[in-house]
Amino acid sequence: MEWQKIISGKRLGLENFYEENKDDRSTFQRDYDRIVFSAPFRRLQNKTQVFPLPGSVFVHNRLTHSLEVACVGRSLGNGISRRLINKYPELAGTTITDTGNIVSAACLAHDMGNPPFGHSGEKAISAFFTEGKGMALKEQLIQVPAQWSDIINFDGNANAFRLLAHKFLGRREGGFAMTYSTLASIVKYPYSSIYAQSRHKFGFFDSDSDLFRRIADELGMIRLSGPEEPLKYARYPFVWLVEAADDICYLLMDLEDAHKLRILTTNETIGFMMSFMNEKERAHAHEICSMVADSNEKVSYLRSKVVGLLISECTEVFLQNEEAILNGSFSGSLIKHISDIPCKAYREVSDISVERIYRSKDVLDVELAGFQIISTLLEIMTDAVLHPAKEYSKLLIGRVSSQYEINGPHLYTKVMAVLDYISGMTDVYALDVYRKINGNSLPAV
Fold it and tell me: What is the CATH number of the domain that holds 366?
């Protein structure tokens, strides 16, 4: 891959049209704005990040997380583009200057495909088809292995690409009509679900593979699979920056939330934040903290300092491995290649987070409830699409948006429509539908 060729402002579904900018925004800034004003992005405000919404104490949800990741991604992208232009003066004035805009737009959209209740929602969908009543559909779907693999490995990353690029009923070609570069930057795992195996990670559903092939080939992404094999590509370079921004925010913001919810003490949280710094940086941080009495303010300051430190570290890793990133040989995330002190701290805090935060009782309770809700909704909705003539099925299908092909010609199309419908729900809406279906609540009259 080459810097001069890998950025394209071509829009999916609008390849034969040229949209001249009518304002001062670049075409990639328009991607960012298009996402912000979309309904799926707004719905992220009612999707759990890690902690259940605890009432009076504000913690992160998927919306605030995505906004923060976009800020970090913009900083990473801008830093990379400046350094690349210094290294290659011929890139000055090219679209490489839009790296920050591309990465921030992709960061903004990276979680839009996540189902309700976070990763437990993904697990519930996969489990329904591998352990639950959905197993009965295997014989009908396994005839196209990639289609069965899509369903049993359901992944929010692939669903984000589908949400943005798929042509739903009544909608235009190309979905959101995003630029090729922004769409490529979202796909963290650029391969078919056939390659997912035990990790349950892949980049696009079988129904959307031709769309991804079109984008990848236009951008000069390196294809790793043969002509007759399921698609597999090397990562698009900016994906590393989107992933790094997510890694930085995920760990540090969860740490801050755990402090606000008193899962971690102030001293513990400050100690974890300080562990990322060298001796000189810690001395300066202690001096600033001594001037502040409010514990939340201290933690907030330290979090911002560590974010800046990790942005700098990941920028250096990206530039040091530029050649490997472009030729597709780089492996592992950027955050795993940072210098010794912050790398050791990142590993230790990650371990503590699993033990003290992600496995806390409140988080597990939400995951348990979410698993039950998603499993129940899948059971009744798949039964409805298999037996649409039943009176109860008609009532259920009547709830589904007309954009989803719930009455599609193939079972795969119908099941994907069910997944589109359920994965698009917020936590609150999914709970509301679950209660009504079970007769636990009725609409107000």
Answer: 1.10.3550.10
